[in-house]
Amino acid sequence: MTADPWTIYWQADNRDSCIATAVPDDAEQIAALWRDFAGCLADGGMVLDLATGNGTVPAALLAGNPTLKITGVDRAEINPLQFLSAPGPLHGVTFMGSVDVCSLPFDADSFDAVTSQFGIEYADFDRSLPEAARVIRAGGRLAFMMHHVDSAVVLPAQSRLQEMQGLLQSGGVVELLSAFVAGDRAFAELDAAGKRHLDGAVERTAGVTGQIFEGVRTAVRLLQAGRAGEARELSSTMSLRLRADRDRLRQLAAAAQDATQFGRTANRLRQLGLDVDVAAEWHLPESSGTTTLLGWQLMCTKQ
User: Fold this and answer.
1) Do 267 and 241 fall into the same domain?
2) One domain, residues 84 and 124
3) Residue 45 near residue 113, CB atoms below 8 Å
4) Same domain membership, residue 272 and residue 177
5) What end-to-end distance do the CA atoms of the chain give, in Å?
6) pTM for the whole thing?
7) Is the domain of 38 the same as that of 118?
8) Residue 20: its pLDDT value, please?
């Protein structure tokens, strides 16, 4: 199995890269924004989605305008039609994996629109923004949704990152599980590591600590049943996936932009010949009457 954190993530039947809140309506509001954007594009328009993952944005765009011709590219090894259990309307989308958005394999003026949701900011803007501008035709549209340092995506990710680092630290649960299933450490040492993690100050969640501890219990049962090989394989897989998730969250935190960085991004696009139509924080209204800060919204038109 490849160790690339995003390839592992997309090949695990995940559709979205980020979930901001537990409110089901939030995903629908995000999709509605892309449907509205698609409705402003001409029928048969050519669209390029950068850092497309498993095609969340293309699916929403097609719901808003099913005539669009969409290409989705990603640096990871993606194949939504293979790895998604329910790919929906994506059969008509051209997906290309192992593509560097800083060196796009397309001619200039190839697309009527370029989009990205929580993706373009992971790349080097000094190289990726000129590439995005290059492939848009005159009059074409650019729509980016990007991570905000104080968003409902990034702030919880910081807490989960600390939780993962605690499990992966030297002498931690993951390391001692590997040693235990290999016969190099006693169960008492593994059990003590688990108690230290539970007694620590870091927030613990069912999605991280809960899953790792359940994996530990399963590995112990496998050993007791004389299935040591399966226990070692489980331990190795758990370690690989947790390290991949940690690396993804590290990249997410590093990619998030504050107001100064976002302002520089918008100015760079102006220098590249795009009119900036919208450059603002992206808030989702909630039923309680409050709003949730989800990220930055950037809408441009090429001159």
Assistant:
1) no
2) yes
3) yes
4) no
5) 45
6) 0.86
7) yes
8) 47
